[in-house]
Amino acid sequence: MKKKGILNSDISRVVADMGHMDWLAIGDAGTPVPRETEKIDLSIKKGLPSLLAVLDAVLDELAVEKIYLAEEIRQQNPAMLEQLTQRFGESVTVVFISHIALKQNLKQSKAFIRTGEETPFANIILESGVIF
Length: 132
Description:
six-stranded mixed beta sheet; monosaccharide binding; alpha/beta; isomerase; 23% strand; RbsD-like_sf; RbsD-like fold
């Protein structure tokens, strides 16, 4: 049995398989996931697990150089935006795109992790960095 880190075998596998500039998406319970994108469904009930809890676990293991967020989060969910951006240093580029574009870009993600989050525009695409 794994002693620490991500215990979910699917998430652990996807994170281990990430290369430089690969994408991994994490989002709310209502996000439509393209058929060609692997969906790892963690949702248990409304709010569980939260997007931030899942993101924190992933960030413990994944180097990130860029994130993509929906432009709409600025007006519709500024509290979540603040929580998300606090988790990244100045070396991580934040790119705002339309919510429609974000959903379309899920096709390029290695996987989408579905949480129980139910706040507006609570979706993020992580672009992996390198550790050297």
